[in-house]
Specification:
By secondary structure, the chain is α/β, with parallel strands linked by helices. The protein is 30% helix and 25% strand. It is globular.
Amino acid sequence: MEGRCGVREEVWSTSILTILFTGCSFTNGMELRDKKKDRFSAIVSRELGHLEWNEGKVGAGNDYIQRSTQNAIIGRKMYWSTLIKDVSTHKHTDRVFFEKELPPNQRNTLGVDRSGVLKSEYKQIFQKNKEYDKVGWPDLVVCMWSGINRLENLRLSNITKDWSWCVSAWGRFGLEPDTYKAKRTSTVYIDKQYEPGEEDYMRGYMMRIRNAHYNLRLTMGNMMAVKYMLKAKGIPQLHYLYSSGQYKPLLFLLDEPVYENTNTWWDSLDIDRKTAVEELPWLESEGMYDMAERLGHPIGERDHPLEEAHAAMAERILGDIKKDGLLK
């Protein structure tokens, strides 16, 4: 029987190393014809003869990357990625009386019947995308950091009554030049399993409370938490950006004066741009998307780098592994 990396299970060696890749849809391999074969994590792992452990999540932000990486290390359980397969499906149906004054965007259902009763039918599909390997830590962690303006939330589904981490991401996005809040023309994807009306609260929070300066500094906290945890555990690490578009144009904000404020104001301890880049040099690096554009590689209809770009990214990672003397 063929097993991990095509190696037969009866000759499987515990000496084979594991690389953990974390990120968003770029890491996941969205829009690739065969992501298990062509995404950069698969190419790198196959080239080195190591196990691919890919935790890329479509729509994920940098809070997810920190959380998933820390949980992978603290949990001390190692996995290897497999083809996605459905495990089980739970069907949920519900009937909620329709209130005519309820705005359409607060109707978290899938339709209205002729009697004016909201009807919803939801298939809760459980999938499996990895297999347990053994106790331990990965031999290398590769983080591809996502957009600074995304966020996640642990919410209780109003349909299934289960807890799950869901993402809030952007369809169209722009920044107001004076406040660095999202332009009012921006569009937000909000999970549809909040209680009626709560979607508007989340949208308002993302567009009018959060701002790019806050999001950038929060992302730097995500990055440093991962960097120093891995360093403390002695786990080699590499860091990249999915795109520099939400980083390089905003780094000047790190030199803006920032204060603490309760009733009075006083100087904050927030670090400046020079210090941030010394700690996190990839903040000024070329992102995967930028590299794909520079090299003239195709971009998918949903704005994801395709096979040629993933091959180039794999070559870049392999070069860094060799240059830094990792996985000796």
